[in-house]
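Methods, example record. To illustrate the input and output format used throughout this study, we show the complete record for Protease Do-like PDZ domain-containing protein. The sequence lines were provided to the predictor; the line carrying structure tokens was produced by it.
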Amino acid sequence: MGDNKRKRGRKPKTPATETLDHPATSPSSTAMDDVFSVGNVELIDTTASPHHRRLRGRPNKPHALPPGRRHARPLDTNGGGDFSVPGDVVGVSPAVSTEADPAAWEARVLPAMDSVVKVFCVHTEPNFSLPWQRKRQYSSSSSGFVIGGRRVLTNAHSVEHYTQVKLKKRGSDTKYLATVLAIGTECDIAMLTVDDDEFWQGMSPVEFGELPTLQDAVTVVGYPIGGDTISVTSGVVSRIEILSYVHGSTELLGLQIDAAINSGNSGGPAFNDKGNCVGIAFQSLKHEDAENIGYVIPTPVIMHFIQDYEKNGGYTGFPILGVEWQKMENPDLRMATGMKPDQKGVRIRRIDPTAPESKVLKPSDVILSFDGVDIANDGTVPFRHGERIGFSYLISQKYTGDNAAIKVLRNSDILKFDIKLDSHRRLIPAHSKGKPPSYYIIAGFVFTTVSVPYLRSEYGKDYEYEAPVKLLDKLLHSMPQSPDEQLVVVSQVLVADINIGYEDFVNTQVLAFNGQPVKNLKSLATMVESCNDEYLKFDLDYDQIVVLRTKTAKAATLDILSTHCIPSAMSDDLKS
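The corresponding predicted structure is encoded as:
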């Protein structure tokens, strides 16, 4: 707005985890635990012009390089987020043999490959910076596979903000219209179905296998960039642990494999050597110090999604324990909290005021066990032979509304609680979950709520560096004090005579209106619309205020809406 410079955040020492739409272009650190790009970003290059829309899934013309794009770097110089596949040929990885007897492998895996379909989606994303309109639609393609009950699974990011979804069977020239049954944002899984009976002729559902062990062979099947026919890559399971799900902004169980996962592989199944599905390909790590690191959603997460849908008639999400905790590895710390030498656990730092746990748990409580499983001082629990895993895995096995037995140490006393688990609600949501953004306009002031998609729309993929420090602090550390609390900001000011002198306000939080605190956007809109005072007074962050004459402000709003071709002064969700 004018020459007003937005306040910038400080760049962290390690690169931030990237979302699916915006792969990192030049990470400056060699940290290996950050996911910089994912399986559905473009293979050609990640350094496109900021004005060019990156496609989700496989681009329509993989061989055509838009202006300003470079060719992919060679394999040995895969740095800064560039992809490591030289050329356009994607096939079976020569590094790992799927099985000693190829004929036996074909007999088991090849029939299951007929259940893999190609997913075509047309997306129309909301415009969070101009919330009364949507962006230009674009197309993508990805992979999916058939399961029981005439259903198809794919990735959630493959059908995010969908307008139309179509499926094509292997070897077919017909695309069938699909219906989206459920989208699991956190676990990055979506469930589809097709009404046309012709689609299901000759289709057999994929059978799910057990969670694989380390070094088990896996085969990823899908329709990645490089061609139109089905593609197969193979590798082994390299790691099993709690992973950061980039699209869902959550941490769930995941598999790391060394099979190539490229743009368009998203949603494709990963088979074991028996032809059973052990996961869904969904993201990969692209970094100068890493090669062939792909990630797969394992069967426990997939089955949780499917059973959640069947049990509740829709997706309800993964519950969490609404606390932040600290490791208890220091012996002096354990002694000071009254822990005995044989006791282990983690200390509660903060509790979400809106979570059910806030009624029984207290800060500085030490969680000793969850559902009868003892928690170690580093926050891990036994997983399998020779393996440990974060205790959040135990929580993710539950469903929203389930009860869990928690044993805590408080003032040297052991207490037991039965807690009802719920899904997590953030002050700044990570996703809009398909809902259009809310907005309210008065006298040219555009009020909206802050979310991660909004920050990305305003500041680009580097919003964690570019957004105002106060907003970033609330994103990372603030908890909602009530279930309906939102962070309301002045997004921009549509210039008019009535708002002279206020033009430079941008992305500044609204704290109060006429002395009343602003809890959410709906409460602000209600207070402004019903105001009969002579003046409208908005208290903003940084000790700034906005004062407008009530009668002239409301009268000027209609002219401003007409000038900017805005259909309504408020979004539909605020009218009800």
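Annotations derived from this record:
The chain has a mean pLDDT of 83.
The first strand starts at residue 116 and ends at 123.
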